[in-house]
Amino acid sequence: MTLMSDKSAGNGYFGPYGGQFVPETLMPALAQLDREYRSAMADPAFHAQFADALRKIAGRPSELYFASRFTEMLGGAKIYLKREDMNHTGAHKINNTIGQALLAQRMGKKRVIAETGAGQHGVATATAAAVYGLECDVYMGSEDIRRQALNVFRMKLMGARVIPVNSGQRTLKDALNEAFRDWMGSVEHTHYILGTVAGPYPFPEMVREFQSCIGAEARSQMLQAEGRLPDVVVACVGGGSNAAGIFARMINDKSVRMIGVEAGGRSLKPGDHAASLSAGRPGILHGTLSYVLQDDDGQTSLVHSVSAGLDYPGVGPEHAMWKDSGRVEYLPCGDEDALDAVVALSRAEGIIPALESAHAVAQAMKMAPKMPKDSILLINLSGRGDKDCNEIASILERRKGSEKK
Amino acid sequence: MNDLSDNRLVKLFAELKAASKKTLLPFLSAGYPDLETTGLLLDELQARGVRACELGFPFSDPVADGPVIQNSYAAALEQGATCDGILDVVRNYRSGGGSMALAAMVSYSIIYRHGVNEFLETCKSAGFDAMIIPDLPMEESQAVGPAADRLGLCNVLLVAPTTSPERRIEIARRSRGFIYYVSVAGITGQRDSLPEETIRGVEELRKHVQTPVCVGFGISDPQTVATVCQVADGAIVGSAIVKRLMDAKARGATSREMAACAGAFVEELITPLR
Ligand SMILES: Cc1ncc(COP(=O)(O)O)c(C=O)c1O
User: Fold this and answer.
1) Given phi > 0 = left and psi -120 to 50 = alpha, else beta, which region is A227?
2) Which secondary structure element, helix H or strand E, spans residue A380, and what is its range?
3) Which region holds residue A13: left if phi is over 0, alpha if psi is between -120 and 50, else beta?
4) Complex confidence, ipTM
5) Helix (H) or strand (E) holding A116
6) pLDDT band of B1, cuts 50, 70, 90
7) Hey, of B82, B113, B114, which one would you mutate to test binding to chain A, going by the most A CBs within 10 A of its CB?
8) What does the alpha-carbon distance between residue A332 and residue A360 come to, in Å, rounded to a whole number?
């Protein structure tokens, strides 16, 4: 596989978005990371090492799966699933953590830290840390620790420390704050493995490149299976890493329509959702200029999503650029539709999607029936739903209760 | 263009230099525990002989701050503190004859939302003399520096322990009013001792630039203020003061009592500089 280092983004910007809005203390670490990333990109040995690790540790390539019964059920476009849920640890997050752990090694850093929402990035970081013998601390909001108990256990089992975060809404944004605070005091020997295409440069570009194996594989698998590219690609967007990973290698294929699906939560009223691109404005959060959910005084808004991994008031800066240019469409999907999609895909295909990925599945369920039978819709199935089973069970139970009344 | 000669902060450091004096720069979380108390605190600090003060604008996501300032920001926001409210406190302070140099410590998230020019103009006309933007490093500071110069506001840049020697000089050259020398790699909050490198770092920087240097992060007692001011032009104390306010609030103190309590502590801190 090939990684591309993006010259146009070499100054840290994607159009007007991006940048490095961080305390001076972190600037040297970002510069060091940028240097190391660029030297790795120019080093064939690194590419070989990364590809080998993706194969042996993550189990890549992931399948491109024709969902025949789901297609039949929806009665329109042919539905293909890019099976990131089949990766070791259960989501796309492992692609990025392997890449960054290798960089940490190159920089001689013995400790890694991470933030996590759904716990998938935390688990993937803990895994890479175990593989490469790195010390690992993961920051996680206490609300998410409750919602994603299984992943907390997995991280601990692999030797990571899970540090609860009790500030703010106790979710993903607050975990990022704490990870940055840790890094402020530990930059000399610690690498921060940020889990998505947000944050200060070079994270948005670097994480996209480490995730671009998804799109590179999907593109050639699609050509192999159908002799052509899909008409539509759908991916869920939290910070935007699985979406950027699948979009990046098809962004120049103008015939491919791309849709990013955000957490529409309960409604699009402030505080009820986490749809930064659909309902936010340009602003700065966690070191990058992008679309954010903020009030008029610049304070970050409250957010809500049934899915801990999409529950974030910002988004990667490259998505902001793609939104403005119209290259990618961004749409919200509500909690209820996502839950319905979990049930539908589970029954039709025997695949239980993560609540995050279910947002993309739900969007496909809306579109596919209106598309011609010979058209192709590709869903990036970013992760599996094992981690969500307790949460889904209790919500479905509540639903049943309210239906009876 | 770039006429800062009338700026209170610039004049203060010129005066101090002429008199071979050093200064204390207390930091307050604006709006903690409420805006009324912030107003009282400004008068109190001035009465205790403070010449320059930093007002931190509460922010929901302050990544450079430790628990004390974070919690004070969260409490201030809960109490309804807004940028407008803080600016009103400063206007009142000035219309009452307040003469301290005032620096606004504000996240760039807040400034960007309001619009850089509009925000700086409002700060200047309300009575601020300087901006300290902790999340706007040198590379991005072009967004603010020229506008601040034009308005006669000092844009204070920060140097960290992790900053390389060449970069320190570059940052120092672009900084106005003073150079904020961050003494520890880490977040704000009390530390038991000041790293040795801080003293050496300030001395080294002095050899290359004329701009005053003030040291902050982790300073919490009069001895450290004195030590720092052997080499620096000023010592910045934040969390230790805010902590005193929190403790006073927990004891059920009134606004006046809280102001007096912080004032007494500041008096202790400033004594070695008299
Ligand atoms: C399975 C899965 N998909 C998607 C996401 C959202 O992240 P991103 O938008 O960076 O892909 C997460 C985050 O936790 C996740 O676990």
Assistant:
1) left
2) strand A376-381
3) beta
4) 0.96
5) strand A111-116
6) very low
7) B113
8) 10
**Does the beta-carbon distance from A298 to B64 stay under 8 Å?**
no
Query: Higher pLDDT residue, B194 or B8?
Result: B8
Count Cβ atoms below 10 Å from residue A140 Cβ, excluding itself. 32
Active site residue B54: yes
The CB density around residue B204, as the number of other CB atoms within 10 Å, is 14
Q: Provide the strand spans (E) within chain B.
A: 23-29, 52-56, 101-105, 130-132, 154-156, 158-159, 179-182, 213-216, 234-237
Q: What is the pTM of this model?
A: 0.96
pLDDT of residue A10: 53
Residue A202: which of A387, A29, A392 has the closest Cα? Answer: A29
Residue B219 CA to ligand 1 center (angstroms) comes to 41
Sign of the torsion formed by the C-alpha atoms of A82, A87, A91 and A96 = negative
Ligand 1 shell residues, CB under 6 Å: A 91, 117-118, 120-121, 196, 236-243, 309-310, 354, 356-357, 382-383
How far, in Å, CA of A272 to CA of B11, rounded? Answer: 50
Q: How far apart are CA B29 and CA B55, in angstroms?
A: 6
Going by C-alpha positions, the residue among A318, A228, A307 that lies closest to residue A274 is A307
Q: Which residues of chain A have pLDDT under 50?
A: 1-2, 4-9
Chain-chain contact of A24 with B108 (C-beta, under 8 angstroms): no
Give the C-alpha distances (Å, rounded to integers) separating A297 from B60, B80, B109: 11, 11, 9
The one catalytic residue among A36, A78, A82, A93: A93
Alpha-carbon distance of A94 to A113, in angstroms, equals 15
How far apart, in whole angstroms, are the C-alpha atoms of residue B244 and residue B27? Answer: 12
Cβ–Cβ under 8 Å, residues A284 and A292: yes
> If we measure between CA atoms, which residue out of B179, B55, B180, B72 comes closest to residue B127?
B55
